[in-house]
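Entry type: protein chain
Record version: 2
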Amino acid sequence: MNQSTVTDIKQVFREADAKRAPLHLIHKNFLGRNIDLYIGNKQAASDPELLSQHGIGTVFNCAVNLDINLVTTQDPLSKVLPFGWSPVRYYKLGIVDGPGNPHPMMLAGYYQLRSLIDQELPNKPSYPWKETGNILINCRGGRSRSVTLTALLLHLDEAETYPSLEDAIAHIREARQLIKEEWPEAPKQVLVDAAHWAAEQVKRLQPYLPKEKV
């Protein structure tokens, strides 16, 4: 592939990104818990008003090269840089968009994303969020890392609807309006390979997980 072709492809990607909404609804009523899953980009994850409009109470950022300051209530102990509380529960996983991630990072991402839904927060002022709300999974563009991780979640936990990882990816590509020219990069195959490996490990580990208290 020559440089001219690469430049043309990147221009197609830029134009598609410009036309695409910052976030899209991917799956309604996850696990029958009245939680909707969204995928979005950096603009969506950094827009509290947009998050509120969609009932999003939890943001899961899976991009290592994207830091977002969502703090709206600053802790009085802040000195050099502000820290405190944001209007949403905010989680971070640092995945590289391409080669470089050990496969267990995708496995860890699945368990982190899946577990935040079951996580019970203490009734303390330093935990101001009462509900999970809907969930936004984001990366920089909402095209690759977030697509892969969400597809893994849907395949493993909504298997009747998404019996294979590819079924979940195909659904997300349509819901997120990823044009066919983007598919080789949305999501990147190296991430899909890691997700396949992670899915196998989750299925092997399932019988050995501790029973949750009821």
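Comment: The domain at 19-73+81-208 is CATH 3.90.190.10 (Protein-Tyrosine Phosphatase; Chain A).
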